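Quick entry between incubations.
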Amino acid sequence: MSAHYKNFKTVVYLPAWEAARLTKEKLEKDYAFLEKYIGLDKVYLETYRDRDVPEERLRLIKDFLEEKGVEVSGGITTTSGDFEGAEGGKRRLFNTLCYSDPAMRERIKKISEYTAGIFDEIILDDFYFTNCSCERCIQAKGDRDWVTFRRELMKDVSENLIVGPAKKINPKAKLIVKYPNWRESYHFTGYVPEEQEKIFDATYIGTETRSPAYTDQHLPEYLSYMLVRYMDNAWQGRCGGGWFDPYQCWSSDRYLEQAYLTAFAQAKELMHFQWGDLIENRFVTAMGMQLKKIDEMMEGTGKACGIPVYLPYASCGENHLEMRLGMLGFPMEAVNRFPGDAPKLFLTKSALADKEILGKLEKYVRDGGDAVITTGFLAEVQDELKRIGLTEARLTGKKYTVTRYHVTGDYAGYLEQNEGIVFPELLHGNNESWSLLNGGEGDLHTSLLLRSTYGKGRLYILSIPDHDSDLYKLPREAVDVCKRVLTGDDYVSGTGFSSFIYDDGSFILYRYVKAPLRTERVSVHTRKKAQTLLDVTSGERIPATKKIVHEDFERHEEMVAELILTPGEFRRYRWE
Ligand SMILES: [Zn+2]
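Done. Structure below.
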């Protein structure tokens, strides 16, 4: 267990190039810095990344750290430096390996064996993929497509070049495959978690989100939470931790938020990449203090949970959309198995990677589930859904620039907004299905959230704007309609924050340090018999007031507590 924290371990990655140049004096000094500002529990010490590290150097570092009470495991990055005998002239991103090249295969096997001779636990950094399309790979691929070829290739590599040889040298060796933060593209590059979960002992996940607007991956901040949950669900508790770095963060808060969300997702280890770039880095100076607060706040939380979004392995489409809902305060939980037992579920275009999805959806709704599908999902299967009888609604291909929102269940629920957001036109039979939220301009509108009933359940269609991140511009009243459908009777009204919920009934609210950079008033709603909202850490009790809401032309009573969220501050609450 951690010597510093109760809910997670703090871990630093020490790459080969740093290991190769660390002297005893520098090691002493660096360690003191990390211990002071992060509280160092564990280090993954790399034996190979473009270059080898001699065993005596590894032993020196390992012995020094272990003497300080720091746990030490091994690491490998599968990139090629000067592999003797390997074919040259290949065009591969990031110098990843060609696993059709016998010299490279032999070399990586030796590296795995070498590492297993020193360490009982080994992690592979997320360059463990292949995009090689050299002549040899084209020949080996034959009639298969690249996805199929790479999938079979990397299964073989995992079994016969990495895990098999390592365990032969060291039967105690535990092998961890770390996946990158680009889940939607794993299958294109030979990442096969469905096979690798049977071969490797554990997994790990990249949670670096950096600057969402300006970096090439444009990742929502919520990814740092969601991917940990996804991998932990998929590998059934065998996700070892989340891994983030300080690059392209450009502010300390942006850097720290990656760690916060990784911890909120209950990652067992918080991996700080990497040793050399953390030393004397102002971003990390607040880390230890913040982690202590999170550790204290997280004490006694149940298991993280949320609205299940079904993302089968090897799926893509409407990428990151569920994370954008996470940025609006929807507590999302990503799963790779169809969540047939959940009372509600959310499906994007990615769910269509499951070839049996329509049959599962039909049964789910018929048996009483509430399913929300996106217009992106609908667009692909509207004829089939009509034939099945789940909905007659169709996308016409026309677009609306929405400047007016109408919450139909609320007699005065009209909102005008100057900035238009472009939505697809959703045509449906009036009173055959019912629109809970309309969006329009001039004398026209279309449904933005439509409900059909089927069997004992309901199917909802959520309209997604042409530009996904325009979701952030929706008025909060419009977002609230969707929250009531997806989260049920308990929701937090407002935008610009995330809500993380746990099965003990508590939840964490966090407002990001991003524009508009100001406090935000939110209101916490429940239909439980509650009187006050407890701030679990401070013990402060926020009184709730009774409010009458109209929904579906029915009158409901809710308890509502008002809160002010400050950017960069996290709090955990529970109704009492
Ligand atoms: Zn190749």
